[in-house]
Specification:
Radius of gyration: 14 Å
Structural class: alpha/beta
Strand order of the largest sheet: 1-8-7-2-5-4-3
Strand content: 25-35%
Length: about 150
């Protein structure tokens, strides 16, 4: 499904609408170039799940956790280089839990790691405020990510 938004408010609304459909346990891959609106999308996504705290980019923290109707684990993998670094984050505590959704910015950043996302949202900037958001649905599954043939649950 493709959405074209013309403001940050519209981008947040698309994300909020997506979040409202989730039941827990899902992994959402959030893709797009720098400045495509991933953090804005994440803010709307979290608002759609009832998160009331400020939602910021986890670029330097790598992982932020927010509480709402469902817990949101918001990851930014841009600076990570290996599956070992991902595993060191302690994600096993959160991934696939029925009370948690995982929102991953830059899931493609770590070479050799394949995320098994239930939903992929691809954002592209068409100008200062216009964004195209392509949302596709995958199979998800028990294996959350795999690296070098080793599955991680």
């Amino acid at each position: 499904m493709t959405h074209v938004t013309h403001s940050t408010e519209e981008t947040k609304q698309v994300a909020s609408d997506l979040a409202a459909t989730l039941v827990g346990g899902e992994t959402i891959a959030l893709m797009g170039d720098l400045g495509a609106g991933k953090t804005t999308f994440a803010q709307g996504f979290c608002a759609g799940l009832g998160v009331t705290s400020a939602v910021t980019s986890p670029t330097f923290a790598i992982m932020n956790v927010y509480e709402g109707r469902l817990r949101v684990v918001h990851l930014d993998l841009y600076r990570l280089k290996s599956a070992r670094e991902i595993a060191a984050l302690g994600l096993e505590e959160y991934l696939g839990r029925p009370d948690t959704v995982t929102l991953i910015e830059w899931p493609e950043a770590v070479d050799g790691v394949q995320w098994n996302a239930n939903v992929t949202a691809r954002l592209s900037a068409n100008g200062e405020t216009e964004r195209t958001i392509d949302i596709s649905y995958g199979n998800g599954g028990d294996e959350i990510f795999a690296e070098g043939g080793n599955a991680h649950e």
